């Protein structure tokens, strides 16, 4: 299994970056696009990195925020065959303050979109889980993000977020976009061998609470490749307490 970051907030290479995430995954004979960043940057970087987006046969949107869904139209132009899996709640309205951060609603007319709910097996060894019915051990709150309900803005419950579990050669690899439902909750729900994705800690202070989160995650046997909304300062802080924590930046490929 190979996972390449097409776009992420940082890079060690001469590639453009943005606040967003897009991963190109080769697993189980499939080529998978997981999220599209906030612009067409993922596509330009894919060309530079030799990732053929026309060969993608499965696309997944982890959740409907602009920094993960902004490149969808470009992908649908490049690739004329891959189904795009997203939550059935993906077209609800999302805000950060007064800023609309949800998905472009004109995409609702696309015949390529498959809406999911609960547990969705998309191919042998590839399963999407929204975990909306699972109990949270820790309530991380809504991070100031809201959704519209009955015409009013209320704290987002992130029911539009789901996670991709890849099971290959005895390994269970979980791919998460931003882990809004709480990375510690997600880790407890799945206990994967490898977890790739953001932790959504970028706004947290470097204090005892973050230290406790790091130690809680490190108590599992999981190897972590984090990115994007974790925050680079938070990553460096957590790294002091986590032996199995790594970072995947734009242009980097990991082999599992």
Brief summary of the model shown:
The chain has 256 residues and is an alpha/beta fold.
Topology:
Elements: E1 2-7, E2 22-27, E3 30-34, H1 41-49, E4 58-60, H2 66-69, H3 72-78, E5 84-87, E6 94-96, E7 99-100, E8 113-116, E9 119-123, E10 126-129, E11 145-149, E12 152-155, E13 163-168, E14 171-176, H4 183-190, E15 194-197, H5 208-218, E16 223-226, H6 232-239, E17 245-247, E18 253-255
Parallel strand pairs: 3-4, 4-5, 5-8, 14-15, 15-16, 16-17
Antiparallel strand pairs: 1-2, 1-18, 2-3, 6-7, 6-11, 9-10, 10-13, 11-12, 13-14
Order of helices and strands: EEEHEHHEEEEEEEEEEHEHEHEE
- In terms of DSSP E residues, the strand content is 25-35%
Overall tally of structural domains: 1
Helix content: 10-25%
Task: From the alpha carbons, calculate the radius of gyration and give it in angstroms.
Answer: 17 Å
CATH architecture: 4-Layer Sandwich
Q: Report the mean per-residue pLDDT as an integer.
A: 97
Account of the 3D structure:
By secondary structure, the protein is of the alpha/beta class. The chain has a single domain, classed as Metallo-beta-lactamase, Chain A (4-Layer Sandwich), CATH 3.60.15. It is 18% helix and 30% strand. Helix 5 packs across helix 6. The mean pLDDT is 97.
